[in-house]
Amino acid sequence: MMPLLETLEQGLAELDAHGLRRRRRIADTPCAAHMTVDGRETIGFASNDYLGLAAHPLLVAAIAEGARRYGAGSGGSHLLGGHSRAHAQLEDDLAEFVGGFVDAPRALYFSTGYMANLATLTALAGRGATLFSDALNHASLIDGARLARAEVKVYPHADTEALSALLEASDSAVKLIVTDTVFSMDGDIAPLARLLQLAERYGAWLVVDDAHGFGVLGPQGRGAVAHEALRSPHLISIGTLGKAAGVSGAFVVAHETVIEWLVQRARPYIFTTASVPAAAHAVSASLRIIGGDEGDARRAHLQQLIERTRAMLKATPWLPVDSHTAVQPLIIGSNDATLEIAATLERAGLWVPAIRPPTVPVGTSRLRISLSAAHSYADLDRLEAGLQQLYRAAA
What we know:
Layout: H1 2-17, E1 34-37, E2 40-44, H2 57-70, H3 78-82, H4 85-98, E3 105-110, H5 113-124, E4 130-134, H6 139-147, E5 151-155, H7 160-169, E6 175-180, H8 192-202, E7 205-209, H9 224-227, E8 235-240, E9 250-255, H10 256-265, H11 267-270, H12 277-290, H13 293-314, E10 319-320, E11 327-333, H14 335-347, E12 350-351, E13 354-355, E14 365-370, H15 377-394
Parallel strand pairs: 2-12, 4-5, 4-6, 6-7, 7-8
Antiparallel strand pairs: 1-2, 3-9, 8-9, 10-11, 11-14, 13-14
Helix pairs in contact: 2-12, 4-12, 5-6, 7-8
Pfam families: Aminotran_1_2
Pathway: Cofactor biosynthesis; biotin biosynthesis
Binding site for substrate: 22, 138, 359
């Protein structure tokens, strides 16, 4: 057995040599702007808690109420006894909240966004189908495309002309255009209106992963599709509920026929235990916050933080990405330099994660600054001071 361990140890040593080993931090307090991580107080710019709801008292109370009402676990898969009233109510709530882009909308709730993406792509595409995937899509969409056993065509990031040429040349009976809405490592937004035009022209599904747009973009935070005021039966919207919604899980919203097909054929849905009902109960409470006056106020504050951060990053010697979302990357370049900067900020009480290959292309390692409505202007002042100290020391 030792040669097997030695092979792994050698692989880990290679990760160390290239500055690519990852390590977990341990949060001792709830997800928030100010946290205790590994025993030290820090201002967190690492989470995807964009609206600052993860520790919201109403959601904490809702998940406790859900546990009292439905217990600690579901006890089975959705098709074998695990589908609770909380799950059913949440699906109705999500269909109403998100589904304005299609007649007869229906929602399906999943334990994770990864599962939702795998389920959707593998159930809708198979041998003989073609998937057209943006080059910067999330790993879960890439893996879903691979598992679907369909032909996969990767088009350059957000390049609708290249995509149009690929669609024109395709004779597949089933076509799926697959894209993130907000790209998680760059913060830019896909050209959704143009993608939908192409989907309708060529008889394709447009599958959008709105993980980083749901709750933040669009009227009442209904997501990127609502932000673009799109409407079409060709659309399928996937979103996660552990980011702006502050809880956990994911959903697919589409025409009721699409959802019924997923119930019957989506293996990641059929062959797994249903998520904790209390989480679904809490998400329903979260939707009420997201869609109400408090949600509007949090989004307005977040937008002000975004604009201030954009100006701050432009004043550094590094390369900010032109993002108008809560994801604000700052490209440093090398792995070692990025790790060193992140470590220096961490010692100053600022948790800003270093993102390296293979998550991003070689030579574009970066700090990924994630903003939350829970952050204050004083938090940004601390971040700005930390960055200024770094580049003045390097000058």
